[in-house]
Amino acid sequence: ALASTGDPKAGMALYRKGIEVDPGSPDAYSQLGIALARQANYEEAIPYLAKAIELNPQDAITPGNLCGALALSSGRTKDAIEYCQQAATVLPDDPQIYANLAVALSNAGRGDEAIAQLEKASELLPGDATIHRNLAVGLAQRGRLDDAIQHLEKSLKLAPGFADGYFYLGAMYSSRGRLADALAQWRRLVEMQPNH
Question: What's the whole-number mean pLDDT along residues 107-127?
Fold first, then answer.
């Protein structure tokens, strides 16, 4: 909470002080881990998030954050897959866990399984543009362009400011022979970013 209000370093310093004052506080460990992960310090975040779960196994938020930190850290793919799968059994309605599991599976070269996890995430959170965008990428990599187009179209409806999405959608339309649609997407991109 404090670390996301504008001064992450000050927030992290307060969480560290909280741990020093009360080393049994799962909230301080969790908040510090979350703050570190938001700063892309995944390796440093992981032990704090793990400690928060150790101190409070009923925590409903921290497992998803640990799953994400593991999925995004380098060299921890196997751990991420195992932990995210465990977290999904505890929190089966958390779309972010499935999205993070998809990242880990994709990093392990398990694209079909990653797509299945993104589809679960999309069912749980149909209005998330990033999930649809990631699903479009995975589907396109698997040669499922028609499905990829549908998800990229959804993503752009939800987040029309994603300029590169128009480029990719234009390329997908072009590969399907839909040249007028492709040109319309590329024009939109150029309107948004004239130097693109």
Answer: 95
User: Could you tell me the two tokens for 38?
Assistant: 């938001």
- Read off the pLDDT of each residue in 144-171 and give the average, rounded to a whole number: 94
- In this structure, are residues 55 and 63 in contact, taking their beta carbons and an 8 Å threshold? no
Residues near 100 by beta carbon (within 8 Å), at least 6 away in sequence? 64, 67, 68, 70, 71, 72, 80, 84
Measure the CA–CA gap between 129 and 127, rounded to whole angstroms: 6
- Short-list 21, 92, 32, CA closest to 65: 32
Place of tokens 């799962």: 26
Task: Extract the tokens encoding 79.
Answer: 């751990």
Q: Residue 60 — very low, low, confident or very high, per pLDDT cuts 50/70/90?
A: low
Range 126-154 average pLDDT: 95
- Of how many residues is the chain composed? 196
Instruction: Give the C-alpha separation, 11 to 4, whole Å.
Output: 8
- Alpha helices for the chain (secondary structure H): 8-21, 26-38, 42-55, 62-72, 77-90, 95-107, 111-124, 129-141, 145-158, 163-175, 179-192
Structure tokens at 156: 């752009």
